[in-house]
Amino acid sequence: MSTQGAQFGKDVFEPLNIEYENAYKHNPFKRACIEKSISMLKPGSRVLDVGCGTGVPVSSMLAEADMAVTGIDIAPSMIEIAKSKVKGEFLVADCLEYQPQGTFDAIFVSAAEQVDLETGHRLTLSLTYADVHAMVFRLAKSLSVGGLLVVGQDAADDHVSQDDPHWDETHS
Q1: pTM for the whole structure
Q2: Cα–Cα distances in Å, from 28 out to 58, 78, 164?
Q3: Mean pLDDT, the chain, whole residue set
Q4: How far is CA 171 from CA 60, 129, 162, 167, in A?
């Protein structure tokens, strides 16, 4: 199921490493979202960080709050950094193909966005909106009863014009 967008994401994120971390680690909106989510979870909760990058800030904040963190990212160098900095299990995996083992009390998909230079389409995690939709619904099936799904995403309306095939006129 992996797409050209997934490979594009690997090609882009693999060399960035600490530069990527430095760009996002102090984002006040992301940090506030994670803090609120932590307040809704019990210590020891099993959590999944999709697209964890270097583990900062999401996985590190969760681990510091005594959560059992699993992080996945398509970029091997990002995973190596996460393993060296954050307590948890970190795996190189394509989020479109990753099959969770067991259930999670929370799943975090805190997405960065890029523009596909060939098509001009805005991509989440370097994926199309259709791929993100399918991924989120597939991963949500591994949530425990009452589990928390945290999706950090720009509204598509801010980025997709009405003549784009990804436009959703229902805004749903």
Answers
A1: 0.75
A2: 12, 22, 31
A3: 78
A4: 33, 13, 11, 9
CATH number, domain of 52, equals 3.40.50.150
Q: Is 102 a member of any domain? A: yes
SS3 assignment for 64-118: HCCCEEEEEECCHHHHHHHHHHCCCEEEECCCCCCCCCCCEEEEEEECCEEECCC
Evaluate whether residue 99 is within a structural domain.
yes
Please tell me the total count of domains within the chain.
Answer: 1
Q: Is residue 35 part of a domain?
A: yes
Domain boundaries, position 130 = 4-154
Provide, for the chain, the percentages of residues in helix, strand and coil under a 3-state DSSP scheme, each rounded to the nearest 5: 35, 25, 40
41-96 pLDDT, tens digit per residue, is: 999 999 999 989 899 899 999 999 999 999 998 889 889 999 999 999 999 998 88
* Residue 88: partners with Cβ closer than 8 Å, 6 or more residues away: 55, 59, 62, 63, 68, 69, 70, 71, 82
In a domain, 168, yes or no: no
Write out the two tokens for 91: 């795996």
